[in-house]
Structures are given as structure tokens and as C-alpha cells.
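Check the record.
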Amino acid sequence: MNSIAQGIADAFGLLFSFDRDLYEIIAMSLRVTLSAVLIAALIGLPLGAWLAVNRFRFRRVTIAVLNALMGLPPVVVGLFVYLMLSRAGPLGVLGLLFTPAAMIIAQVIIITPLIASISHQAIRDLWAEYHDLLISLNATRAQRIRSLLWDGRRALLTATLAGFGRAIGEVGAIMIVGGSIEHSTRVLTTAIALETSKGNFAFALGLGMVLIGLAVLVNLLIHSLTRTERASTW
């Protein structure tokens, strides 16, 4: 209990000390995570809607594989991206290894199946409701997908936030491809792992409290801006 109390005290101390290194780590965490979530949402949301609207051979297999990829081990993704971006890899010429770009790529691969799978489930139910109407209006497939994405935007926001939740807490893949380099690729999760390995448990717990607070704050901010939860009237 003393360690937990010390960790909470350290968390508040870190935040209000306005430590430059801490805020640099927080900024890097937000930069990498939000960039990855944006790219993954641009890929996953339309993909989920497309799978809900279209019928094709091996559709069920595709959906099953997509659902299976939701549990893709981050360290495996990190290893794959590392091999692709290393000097001996096919993309080594780009020089992206141990940069924020490599961390973003790894996170996009991890969370895109999650966002696509959740959005597919949401759009599938909406498509069953709107199917006859959209068909009668002779809407094209692109128009159907746009309509469903718009009408299901609140459910899709939940899918996006689920991707954010997984990305903000990711450590395995970004440790491999980012290296947790100080003033370059160090984020909150890798900083926590580093401090834990050094035996600074109270400080690591403090960073953990900052990470949890940051995740909650971003979720509350997005819900507030989009007015997802409205006050009930009686």
C-alpha cells in the first residue's frame, strides 16, 4: 500500500513539477497513438462497412480472419515491422527503424483489425435495418457505405476509442521498433518498463497513473466534443 500511495504522490508530483522530459514523453505518446488511431480508423471503418454491405466468396473466412487478428500479439507485429524496416529488409532504404514513424506503423497494424471488426459488427446491424431503403433508392455501394458510416458514427466512435485504448497501452511492438530512445522515441509505456527494470517502482507507478489519467482525459474530451452521451430528460 505504501508503494501505491507513493506512486500516486509521484504522479501528481510529476505533473505539477512541469518536468520538461515528462511532458516530452507525454507529447510523444499522444503523437504516436493519435496518428496511428487516425490512420487505422481511415482504413478500418470503411473496411468494416464494406464487409457488411458486400457479399463475395470467402467473405466468412475473411471476417473470421479479421476477428482473429484482433488478438494479434504485439511482439510478433514488432518483430515483423523490425524485419521489414531493418537494413537487410525490403524497406530498410527508408531509414524508418527506431523512429516515431516505425512506432506508428506497428500500432496501425495492431489496431486496424480491432477497429474494422467492431465497425463491421455495428454496420452489419445497421445494414439489416436500412437494406431495403437504400436498395429502393438505387444507392451505389459507395453511397450505401457513406450513409451507414454517418448514421452509425456513434458506434464507430466506440470502435475508434477501443483502438485508442489498445494503442496507448502498447509496449511490446514499439519497444522493438522504437527502441525507447531518450528525447526521440520514448513514450510512457516504454518509460514505465525502463523504470521498472531499474527498480524505481514508485516512479514507474507514478508514470502509470499519468498514463491512465491521460487515457481517461482523451476519452472524456472526445465524448464531450462529439456529445456522445447526452443528458437524459424526464
